[in-house]
Design goal:
Layout: H1 4-10, H2 22-26, E1 28-30, H3 46-51, E2 63-64, E3 69-70, H4 74-81, H5 84-94, H6 102-109, H7 132-148, E4 167-172, E5 179-184, H8 190-193, H9 199-205, E6 211-212, E7 230-237, E8 240-254, E9 260-273, H10 285-292, H11 298-320, H12 322-326, E10 331-335, H13 338-345, E11 360-361, H14 372-383, E12 386-389, H15 392-407, H16 425-442, H17 446-455, H18 471-474, H19 478-484, H20 488-496, H21 519-532, H22 550-588, E13 592-593, E14 599-600, H23 607-614, H24 620-644
Parallel strand pairs: 6-8, 7-10, 10-11
Antiparallel strand pairs: 1-4, 2-3, 4-5, 5-12, 7-8, 8-9, 13-14
Helix pairs in contact: 19-20, 20-21
Length: about 650
């Protein structure tokens, strides 16, 4: 009988798949059902806490209401938002389908081992878009729609397939029934994956004895003397490349006090980066050239050169590691985008990696930028045993309830799309008249405006529609609009010919006269009051001042024009008189000359002003010739003075 307390103590530290405790390994049994369970990470060690300190920020919300998934940090929240599960639920909600929980989504994906959206790519880099993710998601959405509406297309029937989950789940006789242990499917070969019944025996055969720590650390070149099972891991994207050869046998390091610590043994590693990604716009330069043609700029030329140099550097590293790569147990590769895949798997002399190699695996979880630290984190994630604690009875009940709901015929009725209310003929005519009248008033087309009003029998009380429109809030009537645009001719025509009401107020409680902005428009209202008479409208309510005839308005305008002309004439005459006085005073001023010939009291000109006077009217070529002659004469004078000395 296995001690339960001892087994619980074992689960408190990370469990390395290739070096499991014998007591735990002896009690393992494969689960008979392939029901996936929620993963529960073991308690992290102090080293893990230090490595994850930068990603342990507290999230503002710890629950995704759409997917019903909780998370404890910002990093987990970001990973979930980029995951296929979240993207699928968003698209399903837009199509009117019910979202799937994480377990249901994994079962629906079925045969997929890798991420269907390329989510294993970097957080910060931007890769070339590929169509596989969208195609798979679309196919899954169509399949779910067909399952929810089986009567729509009875001919399309698919045989159920056995899903391949990314994790094999095991149970132990020394653990409670609600606890399970998981191992990633990717660390097994294709033959071993096809025999899940012999999973425990396979794990026992994979156990490796730890080795003592080496005195020298890992280098960029593989150690020829290194032996034993090992795996190859590499990531490429956004100009970043990282590769590593890791031994599967753990390495024993002795800490202070003689405590043994098992760590991963890195045989060789290599990382480098080149500028190949177009900043802010994203994507590689080769992808941009293929889609929009080759650009001719310094940046594009530099990126093309760096892409070629990056490809050469990567292939040189692979060639140097060929012997170790050929003997590796598995090859974990992350290369999203056509350019990156061509770099690794393209046809070239001395090709190392091949697309059809059965050892090639993808990372079955999200990864970040290609660095040595990210490769080591991925290695630990792949080779550590997962611990899950879940109530299988509750899962079975939920699964039964889901199947029962799926078996029921769909009673959901598609929600009708909101339609715009149909307008009557009167409303359509009012909208047409509004647009035509506003256009004519804005352009001050008085004859066309009067003709349109007469031909369409538009009443004098007509108001623009719709009344709640922002443009009709301030100017609800044609007279308001004409006054607001300061169009006196239109105002006169509307008042005297169309019979518009000057007492109408807008939504601000203002009459058309109160919207006027110049004197001519205000005079148009006063002239209309004189012509129409005091009994026509309540002019006091319209806020229109006392009436004035057109003759009086014209005579006043003429007087104002003449007064302005006289004022301008007086100003010009005063200016001319002042100039004449200044000229006379200047001419009467006595001019005395010194012996040197300069006039006393005259302002002496500078050398620059004299040169400007000399070159005035000359072309640039003539000025250059004159300047050369002046400099030549000055040089001759200097030579003469030097000889005289």
């Amino acid at each position: 009988m296995v001690d339960t307390t001892q087994m619980e103590e074992l689960l408190k530290r990370p469990l390395y798949v290739y070096d499991l405790p014998p007591e735990l390994l002896a009690s393992l049994t494969a689960k008979t059902t392939s029901q996936p369970v929620a993963e529960q990470e073991p308690e992290p060690s102090s080293v893990d806490l230090e490595l994850a300190a930068q990603d342990s920020a507290i999230a503002t919300s710890n629950l995704c209401s759409l997917c019903r998934v909780s998370y404890n940090s910002v990093q987990e929240q970001r990973s979930h938002v980029r995951s296929d599960h979240h993207r699928y639920n968003i698209k399903a909600q837009l199509r009117g389908n019910a979202p799937l929980e994480e377990i249901e989504f994994v079962k629906a994906i079925g045969e997929l081992d890798e991420s269907i959206s390329g989510s294993e790519s970097s957080e910060t880099e931007e890769e070339d878009a590929e169509g596989g993710a969208g195609t798979t998601l679309s196919a899954l959405l169509k399949k779910q729609a067909m399952l929810s509406h089986p009567n729509e297309d009875p001919e399309m029937t698919e045989t159920p397939i056995t899903p391949k989950y990314p994790i094999f789940w095991l149970s132990s006789s020394g653990l409670p029934s609600n606890k399970s242990l998981g191992v990633y499917r990717a660390i097994f070969s294709n033959v071993e994956q096809d025999e899940p019944a012999h999973l425990v025996d396979t794990l026992r055969r994979k156990q490796l004895a730890p080795v003592k720590a080496r005195t020298n650390k890992a280098s960029s070149a593989p150690d020829p003397t290194a032996s034993g099972p090992h795996i190859f891991m590499c990531m490429i994207g956004g100009g970043h490349f990282a590769a590593m050869l890791v031994s599967l046998a753990p390495e024993i390091h002795r800490k202070q006090g003689g405590v043994e610590d098992r760590q991963a043994r890195v045989i060789a590693h290599k990382t480098f980066h080149r500028y190949t990604t177009r900043r802010k716009q994203g994507g590689s330069q080769s992808a941009s050239d293929a889609s929009r043609g080759a650009a001719h700029s310094a940046g594009s030329s530099l990126r093309r050169y760096n892409e070629a140099a990056l490809e050469k550097d990567i292939r040189d590293v692979l060639s140097d590691w060929r012997e170790m790569i050929d003997t590796a147990e598995l090859l974990f590769v992350r290369a999203t985008g056509k350019t990156n895949r061509k770099t690794l798997f393209g046809q070239y002399d001395g090709q190392v990696l091949r697309q059809n190699d059965p050892r090639i695996r993808g990372f079955p979880f999200n990864t970040r930028r290609a660095t040595q630290g990210e490769l080591m984190r991925s290695f630990k994630e792949l080779t550590r045993m997962k611990v899950s604690e879940v109530d299988e009875a509750a899962l079975a009940a939920a699964e039964a309830k889901r199947r029962e709901e799926e078996s029921k015929p769909s009673t959901t009725v598609p929600k009708p799309q909101p339609q715009k209310p149909k307008l009557s003929k009167e409303e359509e005519a009012a909208l047409l008249h509004t647009s035509q009248l506003q256009a004519l008033i804005r352009r001050s087309k008085v004859p066309a405006l009067m003709s349109y009003i007469t031909n369409n029998s538009i009443p004098s009380s007509f108001t623009f529609t719709p009344a709640d429109s922002p443009q009709n809030f301030r100017c609800p009537t044609p007279l308001h609009l004409a006054a607001n645009f300061d169009a006196p001719a239109v105002v006169t025509a509307l008042l005297t010919k169309a019979g518009s009401d000057p007492t109408a107020v807008n939504n601000e409680g203002r009459t058309p006269f109160e919207l006027t902005g110049d004197r001519a428009t205000r005079d148009a209202f006063r002239i209309a009051r004189h012509d129409l008479g005091e009994s026509k409208w309540d002019w006091e309510a319209a806020k229109v001042p006392s009436a004035v005839s057109k003759a009086d308005a014209d005579s006043r305008a003429e007087r104002e024009r003449k007064a302005a002309e006289e004022e301008e004439s007086t100003r010009r005459k005063a200016s001319l008189d002042r100039l004449k006085r200044e000229e006379a005073e200047k001419a009467a001023r006595p001019r005395t000359t010194k012996s040197g010939g300069r006039t006393v009291g005259a302002v002496e000109k500078t050398a620059a002003e004299r040169r400007d006077e000399e070159t005035r009217g000359m072309t640039p070529e003539m000025r250059m010739r004159l300047e050369r002659e002046r400099r030549a004469r000055a040089a001759e004078e200097r030579f003469k003075r030097m000889q005289g000395q």
